[in-house]
Design brief:
The chain has 124 residues and is an alpha+beta fold. The protein has helices spanning 2-16, 43-61, 84-92, 94-97, 103-113; strands spanning 20-27, 30-36. Helix 1 (2-16) packs antiparallel against helix 2 (43-61). The chain is globular, with a radius of gyration of 15 Å.
């Protein structure tokens, strides 16, 4: 119920920015948002606005008592629109997926799939 409230709030933030939400879901330590971003919005501002507004919502309404704030960074990946259905299914099944892989394993897999070089010391 609390996650649903958070997700609906994020959906509202996206709508105000003229972005289309395809799917949102997550687990205890992260969320996935599949969206298109309006061409007038920078990715960093997009993420910043979501983090700031949801932090206020979470704290004001006491949604997640253990929440101390979002992490400093974020991951964002671009995909072909042809991947939309596969990504929607992946995001829908986060709870099941994370019974097999933790966040770190998942993130490293995504970085490798995109051929993104990284230094593990900067990962959570």
């Amino acid at each position: 119920e609390k996650r649903t409230k958070l997700y609906k709030y994020i959906w509202g933030v996206l709508e105000k920015k003229q972005c289309h939400l395809y799917r949102i879901n997550g687990v205890e330590d992260h969320i996935h948002i599949l969206t298109h971003i309006h061409p007038t919005i920078s990715l960093s501002n997009f993420v910043k606005d979501i983090k700031l507004s949801t932090t206020d919502l979470i704290k004001t309404e006491g949604l997640f008592p253990g929440f101390s704030g979002w992490q400093d960074g974020y991951g964002a990946f671009t995909y072909s629109i042809n991947e939309k259905d596969r990504l929607i299914e992946y995001i829908k099944n986060q709870e099941e997926h994370h019974k097999k892989f933790n966040f770190r394993e998942e993130y490293i897999k995504m970085l490798n799939e995109q051929n993104i070089q990284f230094n593990e010391k900067y990962l959570m």
